[in-house]
Amino acid sequence: MRFFGLCEVRVATIRRAHAVHPISALQSEYSLWERNPEPEIIPLLRELGIGLVSFCPLGRGFLTSEVKRAEEYPEDDFRRIDPRYQRREL
Fold first, then answer.
1. First and final CA of the chain: distance in angstroms?
2. What's the pLDDT tens digit per position in 55-66?
3. Is the pTM of the predicted complex or chain greater than 0.85?
């Protein structure tokens, strides 16, 4: 196998997998809205020379003004239960 990638895994999993076979890229949600990879994942990727392939870089519609209310998505769409799409009282 020439190239190998992972998707949405933790630091320990990246290290274990990379010890077995060099990891080429990690796919993870990353945008101006979703910054979770920054404290641990991105520094580790730099350390090991692994690329990052971000998905939803436009914040699942929030950064493009294309977002809908949770109840407007189909029943089987995860956004119906995602806390980021739930109405909040100000």
1. 52
2. 887 777 777 777
3. no
